[in-house]
Specification:
Structural class: alpha+beta
Strand order of the largest sheet: 1-3-4
Low-confidence stretches: none
Strand content: 5-15%
Amino acid sequence: MAVTLNQRAYDYAQELIGAGRYVLDDRGAWSEHRPSARQENDFIAQHGIGEYARWYLGIDDEQDPEKKSRYKFPYGDFDKVHRCGLLAAESRAGQRKYFDIERAVAHLHGMLEALQRTG
């Protein structure tokens, strides 16, 4: 399995943060804030798999582009970037040695931390 950074999702996450569409939540909140399988399916039905992919920082190039299983490391709830989602993605990417994803998520996390300090 070759999981690499989804540059499109990374760019989109930066745009969302820049536009103020983020939540500065606690590390443990991701289990509550992460979209459910039903919410994912509803989002795909309304917006398509391409829009769904923008919410996942990793792409598994061995998986079908039309399947949810291709997209890894979610970071938001289809509306806002969640700090807890970034922290979960950063930790998992580091454990799995996906260094390009880990660096990208660390940058996004740093953007939120900077906003938190100034806000």
